[in-house]
Every structure is written in structure tokens, then in C-alpha cells.
Amino acid sequence: MSKPLLLICNDDGIHAPGIRALVEAVKDLGDLVVVAPDRPQSGMGHAITIGFPLRVQAQEGLFGPEIPAYQTSGTPVDCVKLAVDRIMHRKPDLLLSGINHGSNASINVIYSGTMSAAVEGAIEGIPSVGFSLCDYALEADFGLAAQVARRVAEQVLNHGLMPGSLLNVNIPKVDIRQFKGLKVGRQAAAKWKENFEERTDPHNKKYYWMTGEFELMEHGEDTDEWALRNGYASVVPVQFDLTAHHALAGLQAWGMQDWVF
Amino acid sequence: MSKPLLLICNDDGIHAPGIRALVEAVKDLGDLVVVAPDRPQSGMGHAITIGFPLRVQAQEGLFGPEIPAYQTSGTPVDCVKLAVDRIMHRKPDLLLSGINHGSNASINVIYSGTMSAAVEGAIEGIPSVGFSLCDYALEADFGLAAQVARRVAEQVLNHGLMPGSLLNVNIPKVDIRQFKGLKVGRQAAAKWKENFEERTDPHNKKYYWMTGEFELMEHGEDTDEWALRNGYASVVPVQFDLTAHHALAGLQAWGMQDWVF
Asked: Which domain holds residue B229?
């Protein structure tokens, strides 16, 4: 039996410590190929590049002699598309994205390039997982996150995932001795309350920096935010079909189907 | 009673014909404010701008003397965030995004800047609708799409929308005499099969253009794709909570909560 084929990507760029930690953690699980952006692409969400062509550059030896690595000029989603169409010779058995520097729990999943790469993998029919450590520091300790990533990756290789779903795994910033383990749950309801900071440039023109505060809108104990705030890593199954089935019946009742134009 | 306040945005840029058609169609429904990107931002998905500051520039008179208009250097989602935090004096009663040049039905919803602006509105608690015309041509005829947009906008102002949901409205490229009306349904299962075109630049380096084919993966008659292919406009309720509830029970059964680290 041939070894599983793993595609590794991220949104912090191919030189980020988090992707290196992920590669180290899973490199004996199969044959790895790394395809990642050539620079940080946080907050890129599910962006793709339409108006410009893309570059792909082999990065020989970056993760050791056995692991082919490529940087691209595209977004995280572009990386997955390029990997699947151009770089890899067969469909990967597993896509792992991360380890992200910073939380992608709750509403963050929708802004996250890390998670969008995993979403794109799932759209392609590849079992896909995104990993994020709730610590933005470049010098963050990825030790615990790497252990979690390895065990979840093994599990997904063994079990597969429900069609139409992927996993969003977030690891708290805690000492391993305080770590309480994994908790499966749903995404907490939350939003960012923006507060753009206005500044004036040397030419007397205004510009704005996006800043904001995370607003948790509930306290359900079955959520990712509850898990992370209580010393657990959160595991949330994510879907990419966005139909709001709970709203269908109400809409039907509007009678729009009978409007005449 | 004060007039409703409407926020108008898009992803094709403030100078696109589609946003002008939308403004014309709904301008007597309330007080409008237009906030849109200063250049085309198709395929930006839910991207936000973190590493750069943003510019905002008033565009006086662009849509007539009564309608304040602003262009920003940001993504469609940035536009909504800037509008809500910095530009508008109160929360809008309705957000309309579009009219997009090209379909955002089915899986396209996830790549679409037009729809991501509407999603961001919904996250902010604003009833939000994205409109797209299945015609990429700059000189497309927005007549029918504008009529649909106006009636749906009126309806949403009257009824509101289910919490946690927004609407994705796509209008087929048909003559109004062939138009069969509106159909409420779900997002069809589909994906893009990428086919990157490799070229060589004048410096003998390779680059890649993203091209692809839309692959419809089902033929359900309750879907947006079926509606559009049969002369209807599609109305799909969309949600931004990405939890795959159908996958929760299966994941719980893996026993990850009992792993020891």
C-alpha cells in the first residue's frame, strides 16, 4: 500500500514558524507536499486571484530533502487550487492548513485564509483540517498545538470526514500541564466590533487602520469559545454549503414565486 | 416616521454599471449611501485588509446630489465595515450589494466579494441581499435584474429576514418576455474544476492564469442552478454560521475528548 499523500498549506506564508511546526509534527504520516503563499495572507478569507497571473517557485530543501515545497504569489485558496491542478500528481489524501498564528474560532473562520484553504480542500473532496494556535506571537510555542495536530491528522486519515465537511481545530495558549484535552462543539455566535483608527499622512490626507474588539454574543458551553476559554482545544466541523435551510420555509411564504414581471 | 436608510455596495467597483442600475432601481425606497471599492474586487471572498491602512474618498455627485457616495481602497467587506463604523451615522435598515456582473449562484457564493459584503452586513445584524446578473459583459442589460432587485428590496424592508440569514438573488440572462419569475431554493452542489494555463514571460519565467470549468454535481429541481437554467431568478437564503451540524454526532463518536496529552 502506498503512503498517504498530504498537502500542507497556510496563510501566514511559507516561512512562518507555524507551518514548520505542522510539517515536523506530521512528516512521518505520509508523503508531504508544501504549497504556501510567499508572504503573509492573513484575513484573505476565500479570496482567489482572477485579474493577475500567479507565480509558483520551488523552495528546495526548505523542509528537508524529502519534502517538496513551493511558494506561490497567490492567496491560500489559490495555493490549494494550484497544488491540486498543477503541482501534485494525484489527489491528496489529506490537507492540513496552519498552524495559524492566532485564533480562528467562532466568526474568525469566515475571515481566515488558513480555514479558507481547508474549505477549498473540502470543496475538492479532500479530507481537510485547519489548525490555529490562540497566540499571535511569532515566537509562540507550537509544542502542544503540534501534538494535537498530529493526533487529529492520524484520526482523519483513519476515519475520513463526513462529505461536505472539514475540521476547524483551535488550540488554547496554555501550558501543557494545564491543558484539558479536546472538545467537539459548534461555532460560537460572535462578531468583531470595528473601530477604525483615523490618522493623517504627511500629505495631510486621512487614512484608516482597522482595529476592533471581539464580541462574544453567547455563553453556550457546547461552543468553541467556551472550550478555549476553559483550557480545551476546540474541534468544530465546518461546512461550505451556505444554504440557510432554517430560513427556506419562511421565504416560501412570501409568495415571491407568484410575482409577475 | 423617518425614511429607511440603505447601504449600497458591490465588488465590481463604484464605477461599474451594475451598482448604478441598483441605485436607480431603489433610490426612492429611502435614503441611500453608496460605499464601494475604488476598483474591481471580484473573487475577493470574505477578505479584509489587515496589513495596510485604508483610504476613503467622497465621490460627490456620482449618483446625483441626494446620494452620498464613497470609494474605498479596501475589499467589499472592508467597505461594509468602514460604512458601519465610520461613514454612516446609524445602522442601515437594509444593505444591498451588486448588481454583480456574473453569476454568484451555487458554490460561487463563497468566492464572491458581492456576496461577502452582504454576509458582512448580516453579521452586523443588517438585513442584507446580494444581487447578481448571469452576464459578465460590461454592457449587459440590467433592466430585468433592476426590477427584481427593487421588488425584493421592498419585500425585505417590509418583512425583515430570519436572524443569521441573508439573501443571494441571481437573475438569468433572458429577455423579460421569457422570464418565468422568482424561485426560492437551496444552493446547488457544484465546484470549479481548475485548469491553470501556463505561459512564459519575456524573461523566460513561467506564470499561470487561473481558468476553470463549472462542474454542477447534481440536478435537484429545488436548487438555484436549476432555476437559472430554466428561466427563473433564484433566491437562496444564506447563513454565515459555518458549523456542520450534520457532522457533530459522528465526530463525538471518535472519542477525542478522552485523549490524554
From this structure: 5-188+219-243
